[in-house]
Amino acid sequence: MINVLFVCLGNICRSPTAEAVMTGLLAQAGLSDRVFVDSAGTADWHVGKPADERSVAAAAERGYDMSHLRARQVNVDDFRNFDYVLAMDESNYQHLVLLCPENARAQPKKLLAHYGRLEVQDVPDPYYGGADGFHQVLDLLEDACQSLLHEIQATL
Ligand code: 4NP
What's the sign of the alpha-carbon dihedral 82, 50, 12, 45? Predict the structure, then answer.
């Protein structure tokens, strides 16, 4: 099993969207039983809450189900359990670098720096913006998750 964790700030917009997109791509590729996907936030403000309804609606328009997802906070054990710990932006990444223990299974990475297009390094936070932001997030995440899927397929 390969374990993939996406991390943002609140775990109600970007990282649960990434979880839903990656879960969808893995199902299409017939790899749902080979790769486990999860998401978490660096902050604890929304723990136990469903994803932002604007994220859920934008994802549903593209066929991704986020309705069952509930927020949780990232913790030090995640670095022992996950093969990929992927931050949405620089601030999430810096938080993860500080949290990462010495015997980590995975070093944190910034998702778009490794799996995105070169011109964009951070998934912008749509929380305080308009509806367009949620589709921009989906565009970036669909693209990055495709390249992550290709890398994972090459290791299976
Ligand atoms: P996320 O977005 O990190 O993509 O889940 C946010 C959600 C909530 C807040 C900030 C960002 N907040 O300040 O509550």
Answer: negative
Nearest to 124 by CA among 136, 132, 114: 136
- pTM for this predicted structure: 0.98
Residues tagged active-site: 8, 14, 125
Pocket of ligand 1 (CB under 6 A): 8-14, 41, 45, 125, 127
Domain ranges of the chain: 2-140
Q: Which position has the token pair 């509930």?
A: 70
- Asked whether the predicted pLDDT for residue 71 surpasses 90, the reply is yes
What pLDDT is stored for residue 91 in this prediction?
Answer: 98
| DSSP code string of 124-153 | ---TTS-THHHHHHHHHHHHHHHHHHHHHH
CA distances (Å), origin 91, targets 19, 30, 68: 19, 34, 27
The architecture CATH gives domain 2-140: 3-Layer(aba) Sandwich (3.40)
